[in-house]
Amino acid sequence: MKVQNPSRWSLKLLKWFCPDKLYEGIEGDLLEQFDEEVKTLGLRRARRKFSWSVIRFIHPSILLRNRVKKFKYIHMGMYRSHLLVAFRSMKRYKFYSFINIFGLALAVAFVFLSFLFVNKELRYDRFHENQSIYRLISQVRNAKTQETEFAGRQSAVLSIPLAPDLAAGTPSITRYSRIASNSGTVLRKQTPYQETLHFVDVDFFSMFSFPILSGGADALDKPNSVVLSSEKATKYFGASDPIGQTLEILLNDSSQLFLVTAVVDSKSEQSSIQFDMLVPFETFKVVAPGSMTSYNTASVEAYVVFENPDVANGISPVLTSAIDKLNKDDDTILEIGIQPMTDIHLEPEISGNAVNMNPQKLYIISALAFLVLLVAIINFITLSTSHSLKRLKEMGLRKTLGAFKGQIQRQLIVESFFVSFLAGLLGMGLAYLATPYFNQLLEISLVFQVELISMAFVFFIALLIALVSGAIQAFILIKHKPVDALKGIGVAAKKDSLLNQALLVLQFALSITLIIGTLVIRSQMNYIQNKDIGYDKERLVEIGMQSSPDIVASQNLLNRFRQELQKDARILAVSASMNSFQEPWTQFGIRQEDESVEQVYFNKIDGDYVETMGIELTRGVDFESNSSNVNKILVNEALVKHFGWEDPLSEQIPGKNYSSNHQIIGVFKDFHFSTLHNKIEPLALSVHKEAILGGVTGLSTYVWPINMYTIVLRVGSGDLGSILQFVESKWEEVNPEQPFVYSFVDDVLAKNYEEEVRWQKVIDSASIFSIIIAWLGLLGLTRLSVQKRVKEIGIRKVLGSSVASVATLLSRKFLLLIVISNLIAWPVAWVLAEKWLEDFTYRTTIGASLFLLSGLAVLLVALASVGYQSLRAANSNPVDSLKCE
Amino acid sequence: MGKTYLGEFEEVILTMVGILGEEAYGNAVVKEIQEKLDRTVNLSAVHITLYRLEDKGFVKSEMGGATSSRGGRRKRYFKITNAGLSLLHDMQSQRKKLWDLLPQLNFSLLK
């Protein structure tokens, strides 16, 4: 009879994973089943079924019966002994243990902080219970050429009637809320306070989950109700209950009484929708009476909720065609898209009001954390492997007494795990202590919290390090014969392994790269801060004016204020403009004969603006102060260049249906009205909006309606405090109803680069962490290598070597390694730096000196530690080292 | 530990162990379920459940004598314990109580 057996491998597999106790019963049952199936199904199918049945036994409740019991009963005593030995060896080699644990702890702390930061950013907008909230976004496409306009830019800023019209025509949209903002003045006990009001639709609170602290969710149902954030409630009402009280708010020159109906937690730390005070959307008609039903002015963001999230797929064309029917403009198609609420924070490409974070930065932070951790892990491995040679005797003894290879491996792994886990816990402690400083440094608010995932993370890192370094140590130690080990041969003769050297090079290359990164960022920041921006930003003050549709009133206010101020010689010049340096300037589009659209920036200014700002004219004349300046405009050189004009003073900005009858009276030198990230774009200045805005096809602006909102002052020498006091007193005299809100232009400009400054600090700290860790590693390694050669040094000295030659001998190799690290780091750093600088239109050049400098710095640090150790060894008395114990 | 509950599958297996009496081992349970309930179950599932029941103290197991078939492997016999038996009993009576509460007149209404 033919032997009818199941496949060998499946039997082997079963024996391997199955607990011994259960094995016989399970195998027997399987075989019995197999025998029967051979008869009914035939050998081949029965064998296949058998293997499959074995595989199905791989189940946690079978597997776990295995390991837990083995671990518990057989090895527990041994593990305890390993821990004890690890603890003793730590105590014996204090210096080495300190370096090892502290270096790793630093890295874990840094990783932990980065983890908190990234985690916070990823949790933005996740507190809303409704999962199908979307923000509407739009893109403009030319109806004839089918090309996208505004360089394909998508925007979340939409026209006012768009969202309600869409909701009315699309049944799958169940809720919507628009969000508009405008500044208003709160009058409380005769004192004016400047605030930003947000105008939202009634569904706001049923869509978003901002916790309502007091009041009802129907808070916005009635006109003239206002919902306050808890901060503002405290500001205006202190400890008393704000619900049912009234606030007088001045909006666009009209004063209204608002009833406080609710106080909510605005969750400003983790929300893309930022607000202090919410009022019903109908109130917005006070601010923008002309554009409530117009599709031409974009000024609000809109959020919608679909009846279920599945609808969201492929809804975009439906929305687009719905809007196309309503939109009267035949030249363009407004393409409507949607963006999930939770994507908003990490999507910087769509322009809107949300605070964005470039996801690239999260990658960079994670990568930095990974690099620092890598440096520390390398450190740990090199140090502990070199150090383990000191324990050859112990291992020799263990082997002589009958230890198996596996047992020694296990011991070393357990020991490494113990040390690295300790370092991990210490690192978490460090992170806890460092959180407040980190918050202060980066101007963020992280909350230190230990979660299961972070504990698991520390455990995982410790395990990883333990496995790698334990395995390498075991490999090195087991290689030695026990006899040699006991005799002590191999300790002195052993040179630093190639692996250690390679790891050292890698570690320093990483550190040098980080240092170069730090220097590049610094040099770019310096460049930006010192670049000539085309006007004089020193001692230039901006004062905010309330939004108002009344141009004449604003002009009169300015004139009176100027008259008062100019009585004091310390005020050199006073003027005003529509846009300030706090926001992007107004931009409008002019359709050309070939259907393309030319974009021109615009600022409505007062006649003295150019002089006050210190902008240089290259051609023509300035506006006349105290004159009407009708139809006159000034343009910048970029605009002249853009249109390729020879004689700009006789030209006009071209356009189809562009009805404005303007006259270019002068050309001024380019100045930076945006940040240095951007190129200087064409700009036109005029005193009257009619000079330039008749017949434009599109307008995007942060301030509305067109008027002057910012007073600019040039102040002369003298104490700024007293000058400001004087200005404030005059402001209160001329304009008692508005708060005095001022800022220095150089401060405002510096704010534009806050993000870069923050980055500088992040990279700074990463490179400091990594260089400290790498330096600790080097310190440990040199010390070990010097100790190994103590006898050699003694003999050399006895034979007449000088201190200098011995020191050189000892440090030469390490310095060579660092030079190699430099050579590796430079090209890498150069590529990365170039990539970062691409973002800036105006950028510094990376000089060779920068590379040499950072290389040299690292070399010096290394030299200091290596040199010190070598000198100490070289200066030691040879008698001590050669004495036979 | 609070009151122990049994899942449906656990209950089936436990009942089968009780029915089979002295002859309850993995394969026998599989066959019995196939025969009595016309339901194909996997050997591994039966084993896993049996061990789980053993952990909970509703069955106990011991190895049988040597066999000539099945590659000479011994069988692991399971036996229902008193705790297991009384649990089955409790479950039955609870279910009966619930069944009695079901309004019987519904049947006439549905017609």
Provide key terms for this protein.
heterodimer, A: 885 residues, alpha+beta, seven-stranded mixed β-sheet, 16% strand, B: 111 residues, mainly alpha, 5 helices
Notes on the structure:
The complex is a heterodimer of chains A (885) and B (111). Chain A is globular and about 105 Å long. Chain A has a seven-stranded mixed sheet. A six-stranded mixed barrel of chain A has the order 3-4-9-6-8-7. Chain A contains 26 helices and 22 strands. With 885 residues, chain A is an alpha+beta fold. With 111 residues, chain B is mainly α. A two-stranded antiparallel ribbon of chain B has the order 1-2. In chain B, helix 1 (8-20) packs across helix 2 (26-37), helix 1 (8-20) packs across helix 3 (43-56) and helix 2 (26-37) packs across helix 3. The chains are: A alpha+beta (885), B mainly alpha (111). Chains A and B meet through helix 2 and helix 4 of A and helix 2 and helix 3 of B.
Can you lay out the helices and strands and say which pair or pack?
The complex is a heterodimer of chains A (885) and B (111).
Chain A: H1 8-17, H2 20-41, H3 43-56, H4 60-92, H5 94-122, E1 133-142, E2 158-159, H6 162-169, E3 173-188, E4 191-200, H7 204-207, E5 212-215, E6 225-229, H8 230-237, E7 246-251, E8 254-264, E9 277-280, E10 298-306, H9 316-326, E11 332-340, H10 359-388, H11 392-400, H12 405-442, H13 452-479, H14 482-487, H15 498-530, E12 540-544, H16 551-565, E13 571-577, E14 586-591, E15 597-604, H17 609-613, E16 617-620, E17 632-636, H18 637-643, E18 663-668, E19 683-686, H19 690-693, E20 698-700, E21 710-715, H20 720-734, E22 742-744, H21 745-752, H22 754-788, H23 790-798, H24 803-837, H25 848-875, H26 878-882
Parallel strand pairs in A: 4-9, 6-8, 15-19, 17-18
Antiparallel strand pairs in A: 1-10, 1-11, 2-10, 3-4, 3-7, 3-10, 5-8, 6-9, 7-8, 12-21, 12-22, 13-21, 14-15, 14-20, 16-18, 17-19
Chain B: H1 8-20, H2 26-37, H3 43-56, E1 59-63, E2 76-80, H4 82-101, H5 106-110
Antiparallel strand pairs in B: 1-2
